[in-house]
Design brief:
The chain has 82 residues and is mostly helical. The protein has one domain. The protein has three helices and no strands. Helix 1 packs antiparallel against helix 2. The longest helix has 26 residues. The relative contact order is 0.17.
Length: 82
């Protein structure tokens, strides 16, 4: 996994940071027994996912691999193992 760039994109980082902030907000308000604040934190968590997907759609995420790239990687791996 260390050789891939999985998750190392602006879209992934932004989505995770926003969701983390929402998690912290929800956690604080859960301990404080404030239902409205808890659900506000949950809304921020969902917003993090939406923002991450929107940024990915805007081209700031990792592109999907084509069949040619997958085939080339498999071929190279087979040569190394042989």
């Amino acid at each position: 996994m260390a050789g891939s760039a999985h998750g190392h994109t602006p879209a992934a980082w932004t989505g995770v940071i926003i969701s983390f902030i929402g998690f912290c907000v929800a956690g604080v308000f859960m301990v404080a027994a404030n239902v409205a604040g808890f659900w506000a934190g949950m809304a921020v968590i969902a917003l993090g996912g939406v923002v991450g997907l929107a940024m990915k759609a805007a081209g700031l995420g990792m592109p999907k691999e084509s069949a040619a790239v997958v085939a080339a990687r498999d071929e190279a791996t087979a040569k190394v193992r042989a």
